[in-house]
Amino acid sequence: HAVDAQRTDLMTITRYVLNEQNRNPESRGDFTILLSHIVFGCKFVASAVNKAGLAKLIGLAGETNVQGEEQKKLDVLSNEVFIKALVSSGRTCVLVSEEDEEATFVDPKLRGKYCVCFDPLDGSSNIDCGVSIGTIFGIYLIKDKDNVTLGDVLQPGKKMLAAGYCMYGSSCTLVLSTGNGVNGFTLDPSLGEFILTHPDIKIPKKGKIYSVNEGNAKNWDGPTAKFVEKCKYPQDGSPPKSLRYIGSMVADVHRTLLYGGVFLYPADKKSPNGKLRVLYEVFPMSFLMEQAGGQSFTGKERALDLIPTKIHERSPVFLGSYDDVEEIKTLYAEQA
Ligand code: AHM
Ligand code: MG
């Protein structure tokens, strides 16, 4: 039968999540409500990011507003938007943001059962030149609602309920896992809705790309150096891998997820724990990778097994295609 030129039955992200939650008879829609508030934050940031270049050129909203206040920096603005959206959802309890030194404990009157760790606008070095940036988030359930502590967000990554990111790139894409595979949704700006465009994403078992800041090579440890050497000068007759590095974790991980390969931010002599933050960078991306059939490793263990002790803790990370990460694990095991 003929395919309609105009599709009228679109799977929006809200519809998708509602369907998922409805499979659990105890679901009362809390997660769907939480997620719709996160989605609102992403749309707000997408719109601000889209206008950012213009605002500079023609002073779209004015360099200073009517009260004479300076325009907020995009990362500060994004943080405010997400904190307010999450608190007002009435479904959150503890929030951790890359932008805030301390965790936010939601007013008891507005509390719900979820904890959200997020980086409101990651890839700061790419903001001013208009290159892809993104929001990353991970969601946990509180352990005991009568005794809410920092321990609720200092849980190993494997305890996460859901994770995702939104990439503000050539299109705005939200990638989400609620622990049942990975799905990608693209914002249709004319509808203001995220539409399911990438159902059930699976990362290729082996990839042809590696992604790393090679400028740090002189300080790398043995296994990292050896792995990158093998990418460039393979000894097994396979062709060398291509190097792609944007310096925006969301964009680099998104490409890795779709095309395969490996993304690494390893330890080095100057930063023995690497650069990326466990709660809102390493964990959510590791969760998505595993859900897509890939792996994520810290150089010592499965990334999702790590138990953080501080909210802004960092960890080295190697994530991506199953076979590529397996190779890195072998190199670390040989060294040990
Ligand atoms: P940020 O939180 O200051 O934006 O830093 C995190 C970013 C990641 O998006 C990216 O993977 C990494 O830093 C790039 O770091 P580098 O510039 O050292 O290669
Ligand atoms: Mg960041």
TrEMBL record:
GO CC annotation, single: cytoplasm
Cofactor: Mg(2+)
Keywords, comma-separated and alphabetical: Carbohydrate metabolism, Cytoplasm, Hydrolase, Magnesium, Metal-binding
Major location category of this protein: cytoplasm
Enzyme Commission number(s) from the entry: 3.1.3.11
Domain Fructose-1-6-bisphosphatase class 1 C-terminal, chain residue ranges per copy: 203-332
Source domain of life: Eukaryota
Reactions the enzyme catalyzes: beta-D-fructose 1,6-bisphosphate + H2O = beta-D-fructose 6-phosphate + phosphate
Every Fructose-1-6-bisphosphatase class I N-terminal domain range: 11-199
Gene3D superfamilies attached to this UniProt entry: 3.40.190.80, Fructose-1,6-Bisphosphatase, subunit A, domain 1 (3.30.540.10)
Record flagged with keyword Metal-binding: yes
Pfam family, one: FBPase_C
Any one Gene Ontology molecular-function term assigned to this protein's record: metal ion binding
Alphabetized PANTHER family for the sequence: FRUCTOSE-1,6-BISPHOSPHATASE, CYTOSOLIC, FRUCTOSE-1,6-BISPHOSPHATASE-RELATED
Family: Belongs to the FBPase class 1 family.
Name of the protein: Fructose-1,6-bisphosphatase, cytosolic
Species of the source: Urochloa decumbens
